[in-house]
Specification:
heterodimer; A: mainly beta; six-stranded mixed beta sheet; five-stranded antiparallel beta sheet; B: 113 residues; mainly beta; four-stranded antiparallel beta sheet; 11 strands; 0% helix
Chain lengths: 113, 113
């Protein structure tokens, strides 16, 4: 079942912060985050595994609440280069679901000068 | 250069005319996957392969076939394309399934008339 991302779209000014949420109704093993710029392929940001730690690099970090089956992506002090559509992908990794990665519909982030 | 290549990048075809979209990676990756992307629907997994000779259905496999005879190649076959298969297609690979990033190809824009 497709995870639900919120918000669907957000507009920021440079330097502002944003949070993108990803929620699933299924028990998750991992959450994958990707960013896609217009006309380009998705690019990997990070993966969070069940039982793993919160991850981050530079000013982008993410958390994974296993009990709630939710993940959040945090963008701090946003830059123009952060503009794009952010996708979360979820994997259950048990039974016949290994290898099956289900993406949300995406969150469009626009950063203005 | 480590990369995932897809061919063709653009294709316009007619209903019912069999076609193949090739995907190749040069990173010795075990896991490969095909996605289609449609406006407002995000990325949806068509088929994936955990390793050579091992393939499985994703969320939207109807009307598609795949094969994985060699580690580096994972072609997507549309035996009898229909207009509802008009979409942007991405191939992706990762070293193995689990907590590893996927590298996406540049995409193939398919139009079926």
């Amino acid at each position: 079942q497709q995870p639900v991302q919120s918000p669907q779209a957000v507009i920021l000014r440079e330097g502002e912060d944003a949070v993108i949420n990803c929620s699933s109704s299924k028990a998750l093993y991992s959450v994958h985050w990707y960013r896609q710029k217009h006309g380009e392929a998705p690019v990997f940001l990070m993966i969070l595994l069940k039982g793993g730690e919160q991850k981050g690099h530079d000013k982008i970090s993410a958390s994974f609440n296993e009990k709630k089956q939710q993940s959040s992506l945090y963008l701090t002090a946003s830059q123009l280069s952060y503009s794009g559509t952010y996708f979360c992908g979820t994997a259950m990794n048990y039974g016949g679901s290994q290898g099956n990665l289900i993406f949300g519909k995406g969150t469009k982030l626009s950063v203005k000068p | 250069e480590a990369q995932v290549t897809q061919n063709p990048r653009y294709l316009i075809t007619v209903t019912g005319k069999k076609l193949t979209v090739t995907c190749s990676q040069n990173m010795n990756h075990e896991y490969m996957s095909w996605y289609r992307q449609d406006p407002g629907l995000g990325l949806r997994q068509i088929y994936y392969s955990m390793n050579v000779e091992v393939t499985d259905k994703g969320d939207v496999p109807e009307g598609y076939k795949v094969s994985r005879k060699e580690k580096r190649n994972f072609p997507l076959i549309l035996e009898s394309p229909s207009p509802n298969q008009t979409s942007l297609y991405f191939c992706a690979s990762s070293s193995r399934w689990g907590g590893y990033e996927q590298y996406f190809g540049p995409g193939t824009r398919l139009t079926v008339t």
